[in-house]
Design brief:
Mean pLDDT: 83
Radius of gyration: 20 Å
Strand order of the largest sheet: 1-2
Low-confidence stretches: 183-191
Shape: extended
Distance between the termini: 44 Å
Structural class: alpha+beta
Number of helices: 5
Largest sheet: 2 strands, antiparallel
């Protein structure tokens, strides 16, 4: 990661970590195309923590194009078992780094450290493990249409989606994602 796209920070609890400040697009960190930044403020002191690059419409288009390309060339052909293994690995990484993640969460939004570490991050890891377990359990079904016709459904990835959050909290993202997935499944069944 380029020096201009990360910063070494020391949180009020003494934890030191490298904070990326760029946009993560196509598996790489990038500056925003228009140099716009968002400042993160410590809610307990109202002082600046750092500034991070803000995505412009052009940056979002680049991210969507990269995600669509990855979906068509890599992710779509990744087996459901491999997808589950990747989600499980992510859940393990969340657990291994929960102290730093809880520190960031507490410093950035004022959430009590023990709540972020013991409740929210446990929920994040648990949610990832839950979906990791389901990754290779999604199956199609046969629809009874009569003897002269065969109709079936198969559940598979259909494309790229994006999410805008009104807060930087990862836990909110997971909760919203679960709700959106359920909503998408219902809409897709209506088609």
């Amino acid at each position: 990661m380029s020096d201009s796209l990360s910063i070494e920070l020391t949180a009020p609890n003494g934890k030191k970590y490298t904070q990326p400040t760029g946009l993560f697009i196509n598996n790489e960190w990038h500056p925003s195309s228009d140099s716009t930044k968002i400042t993160s403020i410590n809610p307990s002191t109202e002082t600046e923590i750092t500034s991070v690059h803000a995505a412009s419409a052009s940056d979002v288009d680049k991210a969507v194009a990269a995600a669509r390309k990855a979906f068509k060339t890599t992710w779509r052909d990744t087996t459901s078992t491999e997808r589950g293994e990747l989600l499980y690995k992510l859940s393990t990484l969340v657990e291994e780094h929960k102290e730093v993640l809880a520190t960031i969460e507490t410093w950035d939004n004022g959430k009590p450290y023990t709540v972020a570490r013991d409740e929210d991050l446990a929920e994040v890891a648990g949610t990832l493990r839950y979906y990791a377990g389901w990754a290779d359990k999604v199956q199609g079904s046969v629809i009874d249409t009569g003897a002269n016709k065969l109709a079936y459904t198969i559940r598979e990835p259909v494309g790229v989606c994006g999410q805008l959050l009104n807060e930087v909290e990862a836990m909110a993202g997971l909760k919203d994602s679960r709700r959106e997935l359920r909503s998408f499944d219902r809409r897709r069944e209506d088609l």
